[in-house]
Automatic annotation (TrEMBL):
Pfam families, sorted: PrmA
Organism: Pseudomonas kulmbachensis
Alphabetized UniProt keyword annotations: Cytoplasm, Methyltransferase, Ribonucleoprotein, Ribosomal protein, S-adenosyl-L-methionine, Transferase
Residues annotated as binding S-adenosyl-L-methionine: 144, 165, 187, 229
Family matches, as NCBIfam families: prmA
GO biological-process terms attached to the record: methylation
Protein encoded by which gene: prmA
Function as written in the Swiss-Prot or TrEMBL entry: Methylates ribosomal protein L11.
HAMAP family cross-referenced by the UniProt entry: Methyltr_PrmA (MF_00735)
EC nos: 2.1.1.-
Catalysed conversion reaction: L-lysyl-[protein] + 3 S-adenosyl-L-methionine = N(6),N(6),N(6)-trimethyl-L-lysyl-[protein] + 3 S-adenosyl-L-homocysteine + 3 H(+)
This protein's name: Ribosomal protein L11 methyltransferase
Signal peptide range: none
Length: 292
């Protein structure tokens, strides 16, 4: 069955008004999409943040007249519609279509992220099973990719690793699969800790090898390797704490940093670490170094 899809370019302030209006005129679903590939990291709990430029997509049953929908929307909202587009789209297996967009991804020389419905391209490589599209980090964003490539290039044998802001657990699990003897994960979001736990189980990681904590419950530790893929602001403000979590001679990798924020973040760690050249990918950077 074909569907009528109406796309509306809105601001976050308009979201609730137009969502209610679309449902009022008979939309069977309403979806918000990023119009500019602008990431949102670490939203506040119980919030649904939107992008500064958002597309609202509404689906209507086939046979619905677009002009009638649009005119009713204007009547309900009392103002001319923002930029919009209506089209008829054919029905399809949406789950299958979504899955077809994701394939195994290689990071560095040894590490692959493999969706559950794909066979590993290199069965003898280090294969981390993770389904792209899950929340909290899947390797598709440059910040995660930068950290995964860094981990792949490290000798992690017998190392203790701390993943600060672990999200999906992707970095800690990768470290364990790459040879670390233990990884600790911490995150402010209990849902992230649950996602990390589930993904560890999917990769046959024993619970005792990957303990998970809320930040206030994190034990006093110093790790051989600390990774933190969060945001530039917290990385700067938490620099004393994060630095103290790294053993003397230990290694640190930071990401979630826009290119223009790199120097500020690096400066916050320069007194305690011998820093590597800043790594850049698609406008995002990774800062790494060894503690003196």
């Amino acid at each position: 069955m074909p569907w009528l899809q109406v796309r509306l370019a809105i601001s976050p302030e308009q979201a609730e008004t137009y969502e209610d209006a679309f449902l009022e005129v008979g939309a069977v679903s309403v979806t918000f999409m990023d119009a500019e590939d602008q990431p949102i990291f670490e939203p506040e709990l119980n919030t649904t943040p939107l992008w500064s430029h958002t597309h609202l997509l509404a689906l209507f049953e086939g046979g619905t007249e677009a002009e009638l929908v649009l005119s009713h929307l204007e009547l309900l909202t009392g103002s001319p519609l923002p930029e919009h587009h209506a089209e008829v789209i054919e029905d399809q297996d949406w789950e299958r279509s979504w899955m077809d967009n994701f394939h195994p991804m290689r990071f560095g020389q040894r590490l692959w992220i493999v969706p559950s419905w794909h066979a590993a391209p290199e069965p003898d490589a280090v294969n981390l099973l993770l389904d792209p599209g899950l929340a909290f980090g899947t390797g598709t964003h440059p910040t995660t990719a930068l950290c995964l490539e860094w981990l792949d290039g490290q000798d992690l044998k017998d190392c203790n690793v701390l993943d600060f802001g672990c999200g999906s657990g992707i970095l800690a699990i990768a470290a364990l699969l790459l040879g670390a003897k233990e990884a600790i994960g911490t995150d402010i979001d209990v849902q992230a800790l649950e996602a990390s736990r589930d993904n560890a189980g999917r990769n046959n990681i024993a619970e005792e090898l990957f303990p998970l904590y809320l930040p206030e419950d994190l034990p006093q530790v110093q790790a051989d390797v600390v990774v933190a893929n969060i945001l530039a602001g917290p990385l700067v403000s938490l620099a004393p704490q994060l630095s103290s979590l790294v053993k003397p001679g230990g290694r640190l990798a930071l990401s979630g940093i826009l290119a223009e924020q790199g120097e500020e973040v690096a400066a916050a760690y320069a007194k305690d670490f011998d820093l590597d050249p800043i790594a850049n990918r698609d406008g995002w950077v990774r800062i790494s170094g060894r503690r003196r």
